[in-house]
C-alpha cells in the first residue's frame, strides 16, 4: 500500500520500508546520488535519495512510485525525514519543457493554471478553500437550515441588467444566474430557512482584484425575520468559518505567510454603521467620487459605496462592519423600503476589515405586491418576466430576508491574497475563460 508523505513523517516509520506515489517536484543530481523531492497527491513532499545512475532519465513532474527505507536527517528538507530509495517505478516521464519553475510571472501561472495547481501555494489555497466551503455547510446544517439548489439558467435579472450573461436557450433567450435569491425566496414558503451554494455569474466589465465573472455564492433566505436577525446570522456564520479555518488550516495559512492574529479576534458582534454616518465619515475625510463625465466631486448622501470608499471606511477596522440602511435608489428592486424612513432600504452589506471591502450583501425583501411591481418597472425591467416571483407576494406574502456571501471575497480576506483570482482554482474574468 502506498502512503502519503504526511503519514511517513513520524518516528513510527524510521527504519521501515515504505512505498509512496507522486510526482518529482525538485531534482538535484550529483555525481553519485540524486535527490528527488517527491510530491504526493495532497501536496506533501519528501526527499528521496537514489544512486544517480538509477534515475538518469528522470525529469521534473514525472510520475513515480518510490519504495525505500525512511530515515531521519536534519539536513533533509521539509521536516528532516527522507527515503533512501530502493526501487523507483516511473509511470510517465514528463517532458523536459515543464513550464512552471520556481519564479514565474502571474500571467504565465494563470495561463498554465492546470499545471500551476501543482504548486504548493495553490495546494494550500485549495485546502483552505475546501475547509471554508465545508465550514459554511456545517454552520447551516448544525443550525437547522435546509440545503437547496436553484437553477443557474434563468429568465430574469436579479442584480441589474448590465452584468447579465446572455445565452441561447433552445429557441429563446436566457441568462446565467447572478444570484439564487429569487428562487430561495420561493422555497421559504414551504421549506423554512434555506441555504444554497451555487455558482453565480456576472459579466463584470471592470478588471479589479475583487471581481470574478463566475464565483461561488453562499446564499440564505428565511421567513419571518427582521434585519437584525439576518445580520446576526451573517456575523455568526463568518466568525465560525474564520475561527475554525484558522485552527484547521493553520499549516496552510502559515505556508502562505498569513499572520492570523487579527483573524483570531473575529467574533460577533460586528459594528452596525448607518449609511448616513458612513457618508458623513467619508465627507469629513474629503472623500471624492468621479462622475461618469469624469468630473470629481465630494461624496454625498445618495451615492453608492465603491471599492475606494469601502477601503477608506475599513482600513483601520479590526473586525467587519455592517453598513446598514442604503438608499433604495442604489439597491436592486427587491430591497424592502423602511416603512419608517422613505427612500431608505432595509439592507446591509458586510465590509471586511483592512480594506478588503464587501463580502456579503443582504437584508429584508419588499413583500408588498404593489411596491415591488413599481420598483421592477422603475429599474426598467418587465414585470411580466417576474410574474412567478410576484406570485410570492400575491399568495401569502410574509416578511422575509436573506443574504449572499461571496466565497472568494471571504477567501481573499482570510488568505490576504492580493487578487481574488488566487482564491479560485480556475478563475473566470473578462479576459480569461481558459484553461
Ligand atoms: O451584492 P450582491 O450582488 O448581492 C446579491 O447577489 C444578493 N441577491 C444576494 C442575496 O441576498 N441572496 O452579491 C452578494 C455577494 C457580494 O457581497 C460579494 O461577496 C459577492 O457576492 N460577489 C462577487 N464575488 C466575486 N466576484 C463578483 N463579481 C461578485 N459579485 C458579487
Automatic annotation (TrEMBL):
One annotated GO biological process: asparaginyl-tRNA aminoacylation
Gene3D superfamilies documented for this protein: Bira Bifunctional Protein, Domain 2, Nucleic acid-binding proteins
Database matches in PROSITE patterns: AA_TRNA_LIGASE_II
Enzyme Commission code(s) on record: 6.1.1.22
InterPro entries the record matches: Aa-tRNA-synt_II (IPR004364), aa-tRNA-synth_II (IPR006195), aa-tRNA-synth_II/BPL/LPL (IPR045864), Asn-tRNA-ligase (IPR004522), Asp/Asn-tRNA-synth_IIb (IPR002312), NA-bd_OB-fold (IPR012340), NA-bd_OB_tRNA (IPR004365)
Domain Aminoacyl-transfer RNA synthetases class-II family profile intervals: 127-427
GO MF assignments: asparagine-tRNA ligase activity; ATP binding; nucleic acid binding
Pfam family, one: tRNA_anti-codon
Domain of life, source organism: Archaea
Main enzyme class: ligase
Entry keyword set: Aminoacyl-tRNA synthetase, ATP-binding, Ligase, Nucleotide-binding, Protein biosynthesis
Iron among keywords: no
Cross-referenced SUPFAM superfamilies: Class II aaRS and biotin synthetases, Nucleic acid-binding proteins
NCBIfam families: asnS, PRK03932.1
Family membership: Belongs to the class-II aminoacyl-tRNA synthetase family.
Descriptive protein name: Asparagine--tRNA ligase
Upper classification of the organism: Archaea, Nitrososphaerota, Nitrososphaeria, Nitrososphaerales, Nitrososphaeraceae
Gene designation: asnS
